[in-house]
Structures are given as structure tokens and as C-alpha cells.
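Q: What residues go here?
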């Protein structure tokens, strides 16, 4: 890119344009290094290099917030620096595996290119179709996706909100599934039961760790009112105590709902 084009792209002129561009580029790193406590767990839970499931959660949180912010009545997300917007969504600004800057710009360009709000939402829905690939699925596939999610993110799933769980499964919040008595209901409404069933099945897996077993038992009994046969666990020095696990997984609802 030629100097003139770069200057035009960053919106400033003269020699200071390069400094301004560079500072904007490294601002997330400077901010997170200067204030690590503001970007720590558990409030900022989507962090480091993201798995495919975590990428979908990040995109879902981001798009939902941007959609609200780009609506005719809201401008909240654009009233603060991007690094702060990500923090408020529980996404660490230095994550890898997803380009939120690109998503931010693309959604703004879509908003500027359409005239109506419905047209904008339709365009965003089309953009997300490769990420959230299903408008409908049957109960068997819904349970299969929940099971795979538990297999890959056993401990994390119990901390995610229902919206996060649905996004991680790769389906839209409005996706319907035939649940019982041939009645179609949104996956969002039944994801808690699907996850609980998958967690209960995980307890019978020979590969389960002591921490996972204790955490699942606490989660099922305290959050899902599901009774399970709890095996005594030996907690070695340096691992979380059972009280720590109870506090971690039986606490209040995830704030990113």
C-alpha cells in the first residue's frame, strides 16, 4: 500500500499518520499488559488461542452486541474503544483464531450499504450461515452436538450461558428441534437438558478426570437438580479443593447471557 493510500485509510495526514496507525494497532496489547486484572478470568473467559467452539461463541457474542449497537436506537458499543467493547463481552482483545477487527468493519460496511433494518439483519444472517449452519435439526443430532461439546470442553461448558452453549454447538438461537411429542421447540429452550444428559453420560466415561467428575456432580445436583451417585475423590496438593469446585461451578449465572 502506498503512503498516500495508507494515510487516507487511517484518516490522518502527515508524518504522524504512521505513528497514529501503529498506536491504534498495538492499543489492545498495551491496554491488556497495563491492566491485566481487567482482562482476567472469570469475567473475560474467551481468551488465548480459540477452539472452533470458542470462535463461534466469540462471533455470536460480538454479532449480537454489534447488531444492537447498529440498530437505530442504540450506539452503545461504538461509544467506547474496541478493546473495552471486547472486554465487556468477555472476549480477550489478544485472542487468536478469529479476526474480530474484520468482523467489526464488515458489519459496519453492511449497515452502511443497506437502507432498511430488516435488510441489514438478513445480510448479517447470510454472512453467518457458514458459521451457524443449521436452521433445523432433529433431537438425535442436537444431542450428538451436545455430546461432542462435552467431550471437547467438559469444564468450560458448565460455565457458559445457554446462548454460548447453543453457539458453540454451531446452531442458531432460533434453530428448532423436534424434542418430544413431535413438538418443535428452539434448541435454546432445551439446551440445558441436552447438556445435562451429556454430562451425566460423561460420568460413566473411563477417561473422566477427578476434577471433571467432581465438577459435573456439583453442577448436575446444584444447577440441574439431577441426582447422581457421587464417588469419593482424593484431591492432591496443588489441585482445586472440592469447596473451590463447588464455588466455581455452582455460582451465579454467566454474565454473558
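A:
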Amino acid at each position: 500500500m502506498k503512503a498516500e493510500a495508507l494515510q487516507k485509510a487511517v484518516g490522518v495526514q502527515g508524518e504522524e499518520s504512521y505513528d497514529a496507525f501503529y498506536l491504534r494497532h498495538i492499543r489492545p496489547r498495551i491496554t491488556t499488559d497495563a491492566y491485566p486484572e481487567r482482562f482476567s478470568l472469570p469475567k473475560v473467559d474467551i481468551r488465548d488461542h480459540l477452539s472452533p467452539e470458542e470462535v463461534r461463541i466469540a462471533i455470536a457474542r460480538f454479532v449480537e452486541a454489534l447488531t444492537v449497537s447498529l440498530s437505530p436506537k442504540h450506539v452503545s458499543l461504538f461509544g467506547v474503544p474496541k478493546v473495552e467493547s471486547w472486554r465487556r463481552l468477555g472476549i480477550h482483545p489478544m485472542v487468536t483464531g478469529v479476526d474480530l477487527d474484520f468482523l467489526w468493519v464488515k458489519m459496519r460496511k453492511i449497515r452502511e450499504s443497506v437502507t432498511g433494518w430488516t435488510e441489514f439483519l438478513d445480510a448479517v444472517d447470510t454472512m453467518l450461515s457458514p458459521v451457524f449452519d443449521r436452521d433445523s435439526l432433529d433431537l438425535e443430532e442436537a444431542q450428538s452436538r451436545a455430546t461432542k461439546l462435552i467431550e471437547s470442553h467438559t469444564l468450560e461448558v458448565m460455565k457458559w450461558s445457554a446462548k454460548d452453549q447453543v453457539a458453540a454447538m454451531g446452531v442458531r438461537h432460533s434453530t428448532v428441534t423436534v424434542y418430544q411429542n413431535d413438538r418443535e421447540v428452539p434448541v435454546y429452550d432445551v439446551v440445558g437438558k441436552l447438556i445435562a444428559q451429556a454430562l451425566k453420560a460423561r460420568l460413566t466415561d473411563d477417561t473422566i478426570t477427578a476434577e471433571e467428575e467432581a465438577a459435573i456432580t456439583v453442577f448436575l445436583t446444584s444447577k440441574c437438580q439431577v441426582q447422581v451417585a457421587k464417588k469419593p475423590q482424593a484431591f492432591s496438593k496443588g489441585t482445586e479443593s472440592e469447596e473451590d469446585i463447588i464455588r466455581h461451578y455452582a455460582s451465579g449465572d454467566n454474565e454473558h447471557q
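A: Context that may help when evaluating the design: The chain has three domains: 1-34, 38-128, 135-249. The longest helix spans residues 16-34.
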